[in-house]
Write a structure and sequence with these properties.
The complex is a heterotetramer of chains A (about 150), B (about 400), C (about 130) and D (about 110). Chain B has 18 helices and no strands. Chain B has about 400 residues and is an all-alpha fold. Chain B has one domain: Amino acid/polyamine transporter I (Up-down Bundle). In chain B, helix 2 packs across helix 14. Chain C is of the alpha+beta class and about 130 residues long. In chain C, helix 2 packs antiparallel against helix 3. The chains are: A mainly alpha (about 150), B mainly alpha (about 400), C alpha+beta (about 130), D alpha+beta (about 110). Chains in contact: A-B, B-C, B-D, C-D. At the B-C interface, helix 5 and helix 15 of B face strand 3, helix 2 and helix 4 of C.
């Protein structure tokens, strides 16, 4: 039992520290990491879209939406940085990386626009501000399907 | 109204156990990732905690002996100490996460970074433990936590096809794209969350704090049968709302703000206000529960005077443990750990320690030397025994699964 | 002469001590036996309570004895483990009731110390939360 | 001498047979009554063998009612313990406790 507690503590400490990012040795591994990144980006983009729809439909609760959207903006930027820090194994990987990076960059730009609008208190019309995210989301989902 | 107020101990215990920060996120994430395929685990957990909390409450009412005293009496000083160390560690992690959860809940309204609010939240939790009467603690945070019922409203407003929702929950399977290990890991997290040991520490100590006696056994049952199913219902509603609103859009939940999103989108402003109040009350309630449990478990193992039913100076070692636990947890939260991760690990780890707490309860609830003629009936024993076996299996499987799935990711 | 049978491990050790005012004041951590009498019988001379005695139970006798001496030195009125003469035991049930005030028990030394040096200084420590 | 000096000590009977460890001590309250205080508790016997956990749980002696599978297991284990009258024990400071009698002469546990 004591051993178990110690083991658990070790696992816990390991897990609470930041996620390690290793270099990808093969194209397959690189592709898998790209897909995971794209999936989490879809989650962020769709969260922001839902937030925009909610804000536009119901008005109010600006502070909450601000926190929600800026958290997702951070998550998205973090995902992009992490992915950039992974070395591509070959030329196919380079192309794949560039494709994903572009999609992430576009999504990030549009999420930032939503966050800015929220900070200015522009809740009405938020749906329009968020509308480019539809294409970003579709692109990321396509990426997941093509490479998943 | 008076009757309603008497079941607040059960409600607060359940709210703090079922929809505290870890469960808010775990349930929403489970709904978003596994749809309703883990709903059965919540149901299994509710039955388990109802059975064992009723025993713990009955033992406390009949013999005035709270759970951690039983742990030491039946496991002995050595195994009792192992359980104390494990429970205290889990409790501490949970307390850390809850204090952070309170801060995050406030930050969603105040637009201040939650890190700045942590010291304030730590002080608030301590102040309430120091000054607020036990019954008022139950009423304020237990009843305010019921604002989370807005998740039920959300599900109802989405107007799902109830038949298919029920079918989905009744015929669980591992969804495509998920490994059986992750499924099992999440299942254990939800089960561990439903049966976290601090619930019985708090509930049984609360029964002694409120001076329950043999005459209050009906009250004990009412608290258990109302509180825990209510907590279970809220966590199912949370899961369903994520399943209905977030999953179709490909959203996976990893922070507290996202948990409230289905309500914000479906119900609107008032709903969001309710959910934020609910999250605040539930995390605050859980912080009280775990902060007090830290003091309860240590004091009851060592035989110190404990409790809010005496003046603080008469239970000074107990209050010192509580203060140090809150202080340590606040500092740990300030160090920048991800509160959601901390709490997810703490509920999974608590699954590993469960049998050491529930086994002594089951034995004492059958011991006429403590219970007189109020020992368990046959049916209760049958269910209690089956759960004990499940607890042992779950406990053995927990750590390997944690390693295989790298924490469910 | 037949008397009540009591199993030390099952019914006495690790049980809660309660003083005559109802205050909780330690556990039965160990039992001290008297020297054999003329008939060769030994009796329970005292209950031992406190971390020093507890460590003896968990197989850390040396550490426990050190802790005892440390506590006895550190607190002016400390003596650990506290020896509660069996004559002060009033009742043995699911807890053990003592015919004494916990203020007079040395296992209370650390409680007194924490009270007088820490908790007692915090505003509100003398007030029951219900008032 | 403390009771913890006896607990967990191995016990060997007069023929050198190992009987297990001391898991409990039986006391009898038959000392002279002393006013309002409790009559003294006399060391009467050691409970030897039967498994540490099962003797600690007391399924047999306390007639713990259930659950049936646990009762069956732990009560059976506990009943394997033998009761060694105190006057049969040669008290030493260390090592195993030696008995003056053989195993066959020792009774089992009774319900309380």
């Amino acid at each position: 039992m004591r051993l178990r507690v110690v083991a658990a503590a070790a696992v816990l400490l390991g897990a609470c520290s930041s996620h390690p990012v290793g270099p990808a040795r093969t194209f397959g591994a690189y592709e898998a990491k790209a897909v995971t990144t794209a999936e989490s980006a879809v989650s962020s983009v769709e969260t922001v879209r839902l937030a925009a729809e909610g804000g536009d439909d119901h008005g109010g609760f600006g502070p909450y939406l601000s926190v929600l959207v800026s958290d997702q903006e951070e998550a998205l930027a973090g995902a992009q940085d992490t992915f950039r820090s992974i070395q591509s194994p070959n030329e196919d990987g380079d192309a794949l990386g560039a494709e994903l990076d572009e999609a992430l960059g576009s999504a990030l730009t549009h999420v930032t626009e939503v966050r800015t609008a929220l900070r200015r208190g522009q809740l009405a019309g938020l749906r329009d501000v968020a509308s480019p995210l539809v294409d970003d989301s579709a692109a990321l989902k396509r990426f997941v399907e093509d490479h998943g | 109204m008076k009757k309603v107020l008497q079941v607040t101990l059960g409600i607060l215990t359940a709210i703090g156990g079922f929809v505290d920060i870890g469960d808010l996120v775990a349930n929403a994430e489970a709904g978003a990732r596994f749809r309703m395929n883990l709903a059965w685990v919540v149901l299994v957990g509710v039955i388990g905690i109802v059975v064992y909390a009723e025993m713990a409450g009955r033992v406390a009412a009949v013999s005035q002996r709270p759970v951690f005293e039983l742990v030491r009496e039946r496991l002995g000083p050595q195994a009792g100490l192992v359980n104390l160390v494990a429970s205290f560690f889990i409790n501490f992690l949970t307390l850390t996460a809850e204090i952070a959860g309170v801060a995050i809940a406030i930050s969603l309204v105040a637009s201040v970074h939650y890190g700045l609010l942590l010291p304030l939240c730590g002080v608030l939790v301590w102040l309430v433990i120091w000054r607020m009467p036990f019954e008022w603690m139950e009423r304020v945070f237990g009843l305010a936590g019921l604002a989370l019922a807005v998740f039920v409203v959300t599900v109802w407003k989405v107007g799902p096809d109830w038949g298919s929702l029920f079918d989905a929950a009744a015929s669980p399977h591992v969804p495509a794209g998920e490994s059986p290990f992750s499924y099992a890991y999440f299942g254990i997290a939800l089960f561990g969350a439903a049966m976290t040991p601090y619930e019985v520490f708090f509930f049984s100590s609360g029964a002694v704090e409120e001076r329950w006696t043999r005459r209050d056994l009906a009250l004990n049952r009412a608290n258990v049968y109302v509180g825990f199913p209510l907590g279970g219902l809220l966590s199912l509603a949370l899961m369903a709302s994520a399943h209905l609103v977030l999953a179709p859009r490909g959203v996976s939940v990893d922070d507290l703000a996202q948990v409230a999103l289905p309500v914000a989108v479906v119900v609107g402003k008032l709903g969001l206000a309710a959910v934020l109040v609910g999250i605040f009350a539930a995390t605050f309630g859980a912080a009280l529960e775990t902060g007090l449990s830290a003091g309860y478990s240590v004091s009851q193992y060592l035989g110190w005077q404990w409790g809010k039913y005496v003046r603080p100076r008469e239970a000074s070692r107990f209050h010192l443990v509580v203060v140090l636990a809150i202080l340590g947890a606040t500092l740990f939260a300030l160090s920048g750990v991800d509160p959601v991760k901390v709490t997810e690990y703490s509920i999974v780890l608590s699954a590993a320690a469960l049998p050491l707490t529930y086994f002594p309860i089951l034995v004492i609830a059958n011991d006429p030397d403590y219970m007189g003629d109020r020992t368990n009936g046959r049916l209760l024993n049958a269910i209690g025994f089956v759960y004990l076996v499940v607890l042992v299996v779950v406990s053995a499987a927990t750590i390997p699964l944690m390693i295989i799935t790298r924490g469910g990711s | 002469m037949a008397g009540r049978v009591l199993y030390a491990g099952l019914q006495l050790l690790d049980r809660q001590l309660v003083d005559r005012t109802g205050r909780l004041c330690g556990k039965v951590d160990d039992l001290e036996l008297s020297e054999p009498g003329a008939d060769g019988n030994r009796h329970i001379a005292a209950l031992l309570s406190g971390p020093g005695a507890l460590l003896g139970r968990t197989g850390h006798r040396r550490l426990g004895d050190w802790l005892r001496r440390f506590v006895a030195g550190a607190f002016p009125d400390g003596e650990d483990p506290v020896r509660i003469p069996f004559t002060r035991v009033a009742e043995i049930g699911n807890h053990v009731t003592l015919d004494m005030d916990s203020e007079d028990a040395a296992s209370f030394a650390s409680e007194r110390w924490v009270r007088d040096h820490v908790i007692g200084h915090v505003p509100g420590s003398r007030v029951l939360a219900d008032q | 001498m403390r009771i913890s000096d006896l607990l967990d000590r191995p016990v060997v009977d007069v023929a050198g047979v190992h009987l297990g460890k001391v898991h409990d001590v039986r006391l009898v309250q038959d000392g002279p009554p002393r006013g309002s205080a409790l009559a003294a508790l006399r060391m009467e016997a050691l409970v030897v063998g039967g498994g540490a956990l099962s003797v600690r749980l007391g399924y047999h002696r306390h007639r713990v009612r259930g659950p049936a599978p646990l009762r069956a297991l732990f009560a059976a284990l506990e009943r394997r313990a033998v009761v060694v009258p105190w006057h049969q024990v040669v008290v030493t400071d260390d090592g195993p406790l030696h008995l003056r009698c053989g195993r066959a002469e020792l009774p089992g546990l009774e319900e309380v």
